[in-house]
Amino acid sequence: MTKFRYRDVVNATCANYWIEAYKGVDKKIPDDEYICAATAAPEWWKGVKCQQLLAVAGEEEVLVDSISHWAEKYELGAGSEKIKYITGMRETHVQCINPLPEPKLVELGAKTQEGAIRLWIKDRLVQDKAACAK
Predict the structure, then answer these.
(1) Do the domain assignments include residue 3?
(2) Three-state DSSP class for 2?
(3) Containing domain of residue 123, as a range?
(4) Which helix (H) or strand (E) element contains residue 60?
(5) pLDDT 10s digits, 7-37
(6) What total of structural domains would you count in the chain?
(7) What's the pTM value of the predicted model, to 2 decimals?
């Protein structure tokens, strides 16, 4: 939470607010897999029903280390075919809410969170269309 604290929109104050909103004022409730997915062991993700998951993070967001750590454990437990994880180059938390101009987005493609999301959805639609045609 410190490396990009002056670059990202998320900071410790903001994170503590969200934790309190979710857990209540008594923050003594211990984290578990349902509260903090990163606490789950890789085995916890074995047998997930999700066919494929896209996870995105900004390369310069304060949560990138915990997101990357979670994605690694998810991949170990669920299988590498079950997840695609992208870190947006020089991006912060939910950078895609501030979209790039279309030509720049096309140029960068999956190097951005928004580009990765667009390409992943397009790929899913193509796969679904092919499956429906069979």
Answers:
(1) no
(2) coil
(3) 12-133
(4) none
(5) 787 888 888 888 888 887 766 788 889 888 9
(6) 1
(7) 0.84
